[in-house]
Amino acid sequence: MVKVTMIARVTDGLPLVEGLDDGRDLPDVDYYKQQIKALFKNLSKGQNDPSRMSIESGPYVFHYIIEGRVCYLTMCDRAYPKKLAFQYLEDLKNEFERVNGSQIETAARPYAFIKFDTFIQKTKKSYQDTRTQRNIAKLNDELYEVHQIMTRNVQEVLGVGEKLDQVSQMSSRLTSESRIYADKARDLNRQALIRKWAPVAIVIGVVSLLFWVKTKIW
Questions:
Q1: In this predicted structure, what is the pLDDT of residue 173?
Q2: Is 138 exposed, middle or buried (0-12, 13-18, 19+ CB in 10 A)?
């Protein structure tokens, strides 16, 4: 069954919609929602992630599609057909783009399109029973294939994001340290030049002063 549905903007991970009745029967739903938000954060980093992917997490699977800088994600039981999950997301995508497409980029606050939940609940209800004639027809639709959609583990996906964060932080630290080193090197070079030429400058100054005094006396 479809358990949780969330829609977010990929560019910054801003959640746009969440199913209001999602996961009420799950005691640990908040844990999985935190994982979903972490996935959105990873996607916002622009790591060239696939536009469609399934991510396993415990007894559930996160399925998502990305289109038009928006990520449509649903969490389903592992036994729920992958093909139906992605067709459910396609239905959400098509309607969301039609109704809110022009406002996605300008949304400034989380859950700005919460009214879309009405469509989410209505659509989710039609996909819950996999034995209806409608859903059986969708499962038998040979034009819609999901075999090539990659499946990965959530710890693997989030772990990659954490490693990339560490690399980014290390790179920033090295850049900062390089700047500090360069500044110190310039200071040392300046001090070395002063030590080298200061005596010469003093001698020249003294000679010039003596010459000036001599000319004044004569």
A1: 52
A2: middle
